[in-house]
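Entry, Tuesday afternoon. Goal for today is a structural model of the target with guanosine-5'-triphosphate bound, before we commit to ordering more compound. Inputs were pasted exactly as handed over by J.K., no edits. I checked the ligand SMILES twice against the vendor sheet because last time a stereocentre got dropped in transcription.
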Amino acid sequence: MNELSAIVLAGGQSSRMGQDKALISVNGVPLLQFVCNIAASCANKVYIVTPWPERYQHLVLPRCEFIREVPSNSDATTHGPLVGFAQGLAEVKSEWVLLLACDLPKLRVEVLQDWAASLEIVPEDAIAALAHHAKGWEPLCGFYRRRCLPQLLDFINQGGRSFQQWLNNHSVQLLSLPTPEVLFNCNTPEDLIYLQE
Ligand SMILES: Nc1nc2c(ncn2[C@@H]2O[C@H](COP(=O)(O)OP(=O)(O)OP(=O)(O)O)[C@@H](O)[C@H]2O)c(=O)[nH]1
Ligand SMILES: [Mg+2]
């Protein structure tokens, strides 16, 4: 693998958490900074897609560049991760991009690096390489081919907003997960308490 970019999404409403998850510190490090630094260990270039880059100016984010998300006409606040991903993907130059949510406090560099090393043997027809969990693909911690952008934009223009629905129409390579904990998603105050225990 000679070149890899990453996109980190930081534009959700954090309605379950009640405060911006990207700025919550776990082990003394704000989640967005933690995830971006892991992304930067695997990728040459990291794009942070967010409607509000000014919120994160104070974080330590080497090799990261903000992409200010353009709000859709119908909803001035947020339109979900699929649209944020499409806006980031439009900037990507490498064949593969690593997509990450900002709320993954148990992410491990070695797991992402092992996955990245396996991309060379992913069949040409696969648009993505992702892990699987009980409810389907894990879309926000895995890899996508840049050339999936036109299909993604078609899906979005037809009103699609669900990663699972989009992925179900395409070939996806399965990545094996050493332990499910890597994908632990910190969505609620209870999740935070669990992390601090
Ligand atoms: N750029 C961008 N990222 C988003 C958007 N919606 C969600 N995300 C990100 O997608 C990831 C997963 O989102 P969720 O866990 O559902 O977070 P959320 O929407 O902030 O939280 P809830 O309101 O509690 O569902 C997080 O990294 C969010 O920041 C969006 O509209 N734009
Ligand atoms: Mg989440």
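The CA atoms of residues 113 and 162 lie 27 Å apart.
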